[in-house]
Amino acid sequence: MERHKKSAIILGATGLTGSTLLQLLLEDSRYETIKLFSRKPVNISSDKIEEHLGDVLDLGHFKPVFKADEVFCCIGTTKSKTPDRELYRKIDFGIPVEAARMCKANGIDTFMVISAMGADPNSTIFYNRVKGEMEDAVLKMGISKTYILQPSLISGPREERRPGEWLAKQLFKVLNVFMVGPLKKYRSIHPKEIAICMLKLANGEEASGRITSDEIKIIASHD
Description:
- There is one protein chain.
- The chain has 223 residues and is of the alpha/beta class.
- It is built from six helices and seven strands.
- α2 links the parallel β4 and β5.
- α1 crosses α5, α2 packs parallel to α3 and α5 crosses α6.
- It holds the Pfam family NAD_binding_10.
């Protein structure tokens, strides 16, 4: 008996991790449809891809077509890229929470979102607090398979220039060697490790909840 071919939604498929995840899904025979919701096209030709272009800050207007087996939310911004705090919150809190809400409404039982190490709703640091509040709001939706990934600094090349982040990545190349034991979770992480982990979580039996950076690496490395 032929297994059910799955469909997936990616939010943020033009980003560093989202684009990596897209390539993995395109190569994965378990998936026949990949729906992309974004402001701009990915410029990849595939019968699997179904693009829905529009304002993802107003994600609700996509609700009628926001249907799939799994949703991968890879959208996120940074302080340097989005210095306006109100806009930052709309992106890093508003989009994931609205996506989770639509999952609940449309009967999608697998939702995962990339957060960040240091996310804490009680943090005095605005950016960490927003991530923490997002995590809590997503978990309160009660989606049966909810995974919140908390990576450390994500390595790999980006399209836009981020001098501070570039410097941090060079530093982490040296520091990673010395981060052992409890410090392992602070090692920088490659976007492919995150993407592989997301795919394995979606197709495995891992318990729902928060996945720390070192746990992401372990899950990604398992055969």
